[in-house]
Amino acid sequence: KAGVTQTPRYLIKTRGQQVTLSCSPISGHRSVSWYQQTPGQGLQFLFEYFSETQRNKGNFPGRFSGRQFSNSRSEMNVSTLELGDSALYLCASSFRGYNEQFFGPGTRLTVL
Amino acid sequence: LAKTTQPISMDSYEGQEVNITCSHNNIATNDYITWYQQFPSQGPRFIIQGYKTKVTNEVASLFIPADRKSSTLSLPRVSLSDTAVYYCLVPNNNAGNMLTFGGGTRLMVKP
User: Which neighbouring-strand residues pair with A109?
Assistant: First the structure.
């Protein structure tokens, strides 16, 4: 079974731009969560989508948003990029709930 | 939400058994204890999960005392490829799939 895939793997943007990251969960998984990882703050939860509905949200500004499609694929969007948004963005999918989440390889975003 | 505390770093040598202990004093009755492993520039990988006593799989063992206020991840005979960050989590049953990662334990395995 294919794992979680994320595209693109690397991205370079400039301040003020916006970016959209994509995540394809493992087939059959209906929950998709997004995390941001930085050296300073570690791994932080952004939001979770389940059956196209946002079920949980972390403590991030409204510039960070997401959505999930009917095929469970998910996208996250960051508008008005700031230097501090440079991070590894990880997507994780799950079938049965919190018991085990499967993480993708991440998208490395660099904001210049 | 149960807060976890674990050592920042540990060193070991190839072939040794490594035990990483995690404290979770305010764990709730229904909470499970979960461990993830992360290599640099990769997403975390689920290792093991348990509720009480002992759980063992092909990768590790998890020991949980009766009071469940701590847990110990045991890695038998580590190799250089076990060098990674190990996270102890107590997912909140009422928080869906939101995982709260602490700082983790950076394990360095030396030859």
Answer: A11, A87
Residues A75-110 have pLDDT tens digits of 999 999 999 999 999 999 988 655 688 999 999 999
Nearest CA-CA partner of B84 in B75, B71, B92, B93? B75
Q: Smallest Cβ distance to B43: which of A56, A58, A106?
A: A106
Contact between B97 and A58 using a beta-carbon 8 Å cutoff:
no
pLDDT band at B48 (very low <50, low <70, confident <90, very high): very high
Peptide bond into A8 cis (omega under 30): yes
Percentage of chain B beyond pLDDT 90 is: 72
Asked if A106 and B101 come within 8 Å (Cβ–Cβ), the reply is no
Distance, C-alpha A1 to centroid of its chain:
21
Cβ of A98 within 8 Å of Cβ of B99? The answer is yes
- Number of residues in chain B: 111
Most A-contacting residue of B98, B100, B106 (CB-CB within 10 A), to test interface:
B98
Tell me the C-alpha distance between B106 and B8, whole Å: 6
pLDDT of residue B45: 94
Structure-token match 């916006």, residue found: A18
Which distant-in-sequence residues (6+ apart) come within 8 Å of A77 by Cβ? A18, A19, A20, A21, A64, A65, A66
